[in-house]
């Protein structure tokens, strides 16, 4: 009996490689819980901490799950793509619409606050990881384009929840915020179109990078940490918007956009269980 209990206990222990990403993910979730409960300078500190933890998690998880080359590539690729799209957007209004950042986000490069590429990094890797999972049942010929489209859609959907929160905090403002999604009057529809375009470009490049640099599947760790962060920042963010931040429109959109993903994941889990 003692031997069986010990074996069961060992089975519940996370693999060593999973511990650090999970610790970062839990720290991020706890910090995110503090966001709606804080204000002023304290809220700015919370925002910075969330983004730094999220970007750190992306690099650490990419390195532990797919290898150091993949992690370095993810960091360089996402940062460069973010600065390119954001600097062009600030200068021309394409593809998001006309907007400007406030001084609250700190130092900039080409007008883009340093925090912004880190936020892209926080969002991009978990979006790709979830898309990789969603695309696995797709036949081989369509798996890569399916993965890119899923990842871009998840990337843009995340921003549907995030952008109204950041506008409310005063981190950036839109010159022409309407027309927007129903229930969201502070962020234009052009922003969603811009994120879809940027997401397709970024995820196509990211998918190519991972395909060429990732280590074999048998060396991977769990994807639990980035998926936990993605789930919390969307559904937990929607809860915060509805209950504390006075943003019912983005809360409703966050919940609605999460439903199709959850349905697909449940169906995949049932199908996998049926094959066992």
TrEMBL record:
Segments passing through the bilayer: 20-39, 45-64, 71-96, 108-128, 148-172, 192-215, 227-244, 250-267
InterPro entries: CruF-like (IPR007354)
Keyword Membrane applies: yes
KW Cell inner membrane (keyword) present: no
Keyword annotations: Membrane, Transmembrane, Transmembrane helix
Listed name of the protein: Putative membrane protein
